[in-house]
Amino acid sequence: MSSESKPWAGRFTQATDAFVEAFTASVGFDQRLARHDIQGSIAHATMLARIGVLSQKDLHTIVGGLETILAEIERGDFFWSVELEDVHMNIEARLTDRIGEAGKKLHTGRSRNDQVATDIRLYLRDEIDGLCQQLATLRAALIDLAEREADTILPGFTHLQVAQPVSFGHHLMAWHEMLARDQDRLRDCRKRLNVMPLGAAALAGTTFPLDRHYTAELLGFDRPAANSLDAVSDRDFAIEFTACASLVMMHLSRFSEELILWTSAQFAFVDLPDAFCTGSSIMPQKKNPDVPELVRGKAGRVFGHLVGLLTLMKSQPLAYNKDNQEDKEPLFDTLDTLKACLRAYTDMVPHLAPNREAMRLAALKGYATATDLADYLVRKGIAFRDAHEVVGKAVRLGIDSGRDLSQLTLDELKALSPRIEADVFGILTLEGSLQARDHFGGTAPNQVRQAVARARAQLAEEAQP
Ligand code: ARG
């Protein structure tokens, strides 16, 4: 195609170099924005007709043309041309092909700079709504599993060393808390995103008396952007979104790490369904937790996109610069990655099969009730630091004789502290240890069930429009 056919070819005397054309084109990836580009164009045209810049007849023709083009695109019948650079010029050129003169009027009072900024916001807004749905579904699955496993006991860890027994349901509700914050952050990000750049035109606004409030209303934006220079150049929302996405991925990578540890023969706390694992081409016995491993690995690329976008925006002078075209691929890849990882977790969580016996044995092995014994001594009038010392000796005795604290005899315990009586054995059991942590946010199964009820109520409330 010669330079004459480009919408901006008027002042050029030379055709674009073929490499430069390919190098500067974004249509290969920004065609994803087509639906939202058309949505924005229809609103813009509707507003132009309302202020009398377009006739009703032209508006009608434009809207009909754009709807037909959208159908073509969705059927996969649209020819995307690299010569036409990007999604915006491809659609506009096709519109003029189809409807003639009226098509040439659509770009009145608008620039691709405010157009693209609007398109990405519209697109990302829908995607955020979808992600919130996915997060809510995953949270509901975790809540269900936590309820079922409220009485299941596994060792809680600090430093990856057995620390104190906890309810498996409590552990799962910790995961839920992370995702609830993630969803809240996305909703918050959406608020700042939901501002309309359209009307800023290239950078300074336009000479037409645009009714930007009306266009914003048509597109469901809370308001038009307050400064035209900022409107076309701001990509904070993309960075903020990628930061939110990074936190979700960081959380998923933590869940993944635990699943990878737990499915190993050394822990054997949970089993993943075969459908979520793969085998080894050489070692016949292997069942590898590939899905959690990939999720853990994919966190890296999303963090990379966050740094990439920050670096893209760093030092950019006002207003629009072509650099901004580089915002799309990291954003799209972040979305694709996050959606796939959430999908993997949503499918996997309901099928996590806990090995309750292995969890219990592990909790029994690590002297997990040592703190309970210390607290018991405090209740019997011994200062906590002295109690700590006594229990340390009890643990030593257990290690030396290969026994758990609950397997020491009353005489042995009394030799360490005469305050210890027969009632001590009630608090040395795993169940006793859990039951004793019976306050808001604690691991007592009764508290876990209350946390489950609160989380369900919160989910239901968030689902209200
Ligand atoms: N494809 C461009 C982008 O994504 C659209 C805006 C182009 N504006 C311009 N002045 N060249 O940023």
UniProtKB/TrEMBL annotation:
Keyword field: Amino-acid biosynthesis, Arginine biosynthesis, Cytoplasm, Lyase
Q: Where is the Fumarate lyase N-terminal domain?
A: 10-304
Pfam families tied to this protein: ASL_C2 (PF14698), Lyase_1 (PF00206)
Which residues does the UniProt record annotate as the domain Argininosuccinate lyase C-terminal?
Answer: 367-434
Q: Name one GO molecular function term.
A: argininosuccinate lyase activity
GO (cellular component) term, any one: cytosol
Q: Which pathway is this protein assigned to?
A: Amino-acid biosynthesis; L-arginine biosynthesis; L-arginine from L-ornithine and carbamoyl phosphate: step 3/3
The record's subcellular locations are: Cytoplasm
This enzyme catalyses:
2-(N(omega)-L-arginino)succinate = fumarate + L-arginine
Q: EC class of this enzyme?
A: lyase
Which protein is depicted? Argininosuccinate lyase
* Provenance organism: Methylomagnum ishizawai
Q: Which gene encodes it?
A: argH
